[in-house]
Amino acid sequence: MNEMMKTAAICGGAVVLAVVASTMGPKEIKNDLFSDQGELFFPQFTDPTAAVDLEVTQFLEGSAEARKFAVRRDAEGRWTIPSHGNYPADAKDRMGKAAALLIGLKKEQCVGERKEDEVAYGVVDPLDGGTETKGRGTRVTMKDSAGNVLADLVIGKEVEKKLQVRYLRAPGKKRVYAAKLDGEVSTKFADWIETDLLKAQSWDIAKVTMDNYSVDETSGTIKKGDVYVASKDDAGKWAFDGLDAAKEEPNEDKLREVGDTLGQIKIVGVRKKPEGLTAMLEQATGFDRQILRQTLAEKGYFVANNGKLVSNEGDLLFETKKGVRYTLRFGELVPGSGLDVSSGAEDPKSKPKEGEAPKPGDNRYLMVTAEFQESLLSKPAGVRLPQEQLDKRATARRDIEDIQKAVEAFRAKNENKLPESLAKLAEKPAEGAALLAELKKDPWGNDYILSAAGDSYLVISYADGNAEGGEGAATDVRSDRLPLEDELKKTADAWAEHDRKVEDGRKEAEKLTKRFASWYYIIDGALFQKLKPKRADLVKPKSAEPAPGTTPGGNEPPK
Predict the structure, then answer these.
(1) Is the Cβ–Cβ distance between 111 and 162 less than 8 Å?
(2) How far, in Å, are 228, 344, 350 from residue 341 at the CA level?
(3) Are 323 and 501 in contact (CB under 8 A)?
(4) Which of 4, 43, 341, 414 could form a disulfide with 269 if both were Cys (CB 3.0 to 4.6 A apart)?
(5) For residue 139, which of 60, 73, 55 has the smallest C-alpha distance?
(6) Looking at residue 335, what is its pLDDT?
(7) H-only helix segments in 338-386
(8) pLDDT value at position 124?
(9) Are 196 and 266 in contact (CB under 8 A)?
(10) Which tens digits make up the pLDDT trace of 135-188?
(11) Under DSSP, is residue 178 helix (H, G, I), strand (E, B) or coil?
(12) What's the angle, vertex CA 230, arms to CA 227 and CA 235, rounded to 5?
């Protein structure tokens, strides 16, 4: 082929390529990896109140298992924590906050979709059945009342040097995103409950009894110990039973600390109470004592011969001004930490390493009862009259006051003489109106009495007894003792207030009993120690009385 023919062939090929290219047009190059960047993770999830079921799954590397923490609302609207024996949750507000973390959450930046990178991002699904233990994230799932999934997300590591920015992945999806997550969904038991166990206020505590008996576990008998009783008056001043008044006085600072500590007891963990105990911690009928005894003993509790529960650390009783008596029964130490304490589930993080001795427990079991005792409320002094009698006495008082005015008007017209009878006051004179429009019977259907003694007089109703004198509802209503009616009304109001306190106290005790009935509680061991003082802590040497004519500091007062 000569040169001219080669050139023609090359030119012809170029023309063909140009024609082919022109028919195909330009090709757009698109990276599908970023196609949904900026979109919402859960566009249909807009109402935080729709979330009634939360499940948070975390992977425990120590035991290579997934551990679930759940909070649910049942058909009756009660929130519970299944992982802790369905303990009641105080979850409404916190569930709303948890939902708010996921509502409006955007896929801000896609960082990749390679399976092999999930470990580095920490977004491996904790429920994944694989053998990989590293890089597992926290999976958060929210559902509505019908069981529909509102949100489901694996939360991974925090993006380096970016505050509150986390790696996120939807379960079953490949893409991993980096997005700002303002907070976290707590799996701490204490964050989801009302931790104030007793709901006691130190100012409301009127009396504390510390009964330091113990139990001989071998014989099952109770060994008596020291009993300390302290009471507080309305002014807040403490007294201590059994003082040597010549040498001792109450240590008010220490007694005040005991009262303050009772108001500070927080729930660290819970366990279900065994069947066979009533709400007041007595053996229920129909249960074998030996089985119940074995169940209780490991936690430091025993059933006494009278069927009542006793504890190996004694009891503390305290009474409130509302008439509620609490009984606190302290049990054994609770070893471990974390889930070991809060729910009783084994927490690998708290396991001692091989060859290490177990860490001593720093928490303790506690069982609580509450009962209302009306005798703890002081009763008003004075007779308690029914409202019907008070209303009648008030009417009699008004009638007597009207009669008095008519008597005084009669005397003004008749040289200070008294009328012959009260009927005279209702007689119409020749001119003008009668001094008393009508002479009524008293509210008990009897006549009012005019009792004259010289120039003085009394107007009397014999009240309910219809005889002179009497007590209670039969006490006479007399013109010279009308202020007595005010006192009777004040006494009636005081009794009404007492009735209100009784009703409130009963309701409070019922509410507390319902709360305490099903549970062992676990409390901080340090608080327990503050509630087990020695006598020497509760009393102190009596302060020297200042000499007459001197100030408490021992100096003579300034002249």
Answers:
(1) no
(2) 31, 6, 10
(3) yes
(4) 341
(5) 55
(6) 87
(7) 339-342
(8) 95
(9) yes
(10) 999 999 999 999 999 999 999 999 998 989 999 999 999 999 999 998 889 899
(11) strand
(12) 175
pLDDT value for 325: 97
How far is 287 from 284, CA to CA, in rounded Å?
A: 6
> Cβ contacts of residue 432 below 8 Å, gap of 6+?
none
Give CA angle at 409 (406, 410), nearest 5°. 85
Do the strands 165-169 and 176-180 form a parallel or antiparallel pair, or are they unpaired? antiparallel
The pLDDT of residue 192 is: 94
Both structure tokens of 91: 């979850």
Q: Measuring CA to CA, how many Å separate 137 from each of 121, 127, 158, 176?
A: 9, 10, 11, 12
**How far is it, in rounded angstroms, from Cα 162 to Cα 479?**
87
> φ, ψ for residue 133 (rounded to 5)?
-105, -15
Torsion-angle region of 549 (φ positive above 0: left; ψ -120 to 50: alpha; else: beta): left
pLDDT at 422: 95
In Å, how far are 286, 345, 367 from 274, measured between CA atoms? 14, 17, 12
- Compute how many other C-beta atoms are within 10 angstroms of the C-beta atom of residue 200: 22
Residue pair 488/393 in contact (Cβ under 8 Å)? The answer is yes
Rounded-to-integer distance, Cα 50 and Cα 539, Å: 57
**What's 309's DSSP letter?**
E
Cα 338 from Cα 515, distance rounded (Å): 23
Q: Return the amino acid letter for 514.
A: K
Instruction: Give the pLDDT score at 283.
Output: 85
| Residue 101 CB coordination number (10 Å) | 19
Block residue for tokens 């109703």:
461
What token pair was written down for 390? 């008070």
Report d(CA 460, CA 444) in Å as an integer. 13
Question: Around 499, how many Cα atoms within 13 Å sit in the side-chain half-sphere?
Answer: 8
Q: How far apart are CA 382 and CA 485, in angstroms?
A: 12
- 30 contacts: CB under 8 Å, gap ≥ 6: none
- Type and span of the H or E element at 390: helix 387-413
CA dist 337 and 341 (Å) reads 5
**Burial, 100: exposed, middle or buried (Cβ in 10 Å; 0-12, 13-18, 19+)?**
middle
Strands (E) located in 74-121? 79-81, 87-88, 109-112
pLDDT at 242: 94
Residue ranges in the chain modelled with pLDDT below 50: 1, 4-30
- pLDDT tens digits along 18-32: 443 444 434 443 456
Q: How many residues does the chain have?
A: 559
What distance in Å separates the CA atoms of residue 554 and residue 556, rounded to the nearest whole number? Answer: 7
Torsion sign, CA atoms 417, 421, 425, 429:
negative
Spatial CB neighbours of 19, under 8 Å, sequence gap ≥ 6: none
| Closest to 505 (Cα-Cα) out of 381, 376, 316 | 376
d(CA 201, CA 455): 62
Please report the pLDDT score of residue 288 as a whole number: 78
Burial zone of 428 (CB within 10 Å; 0-12 exposed, 13-18 middle, 19+ buried): exposed
**By CB neighbour count within 10 A (0-12 exposed, 13-18 middle, 19+ buried), where does 309 fall?**
buried
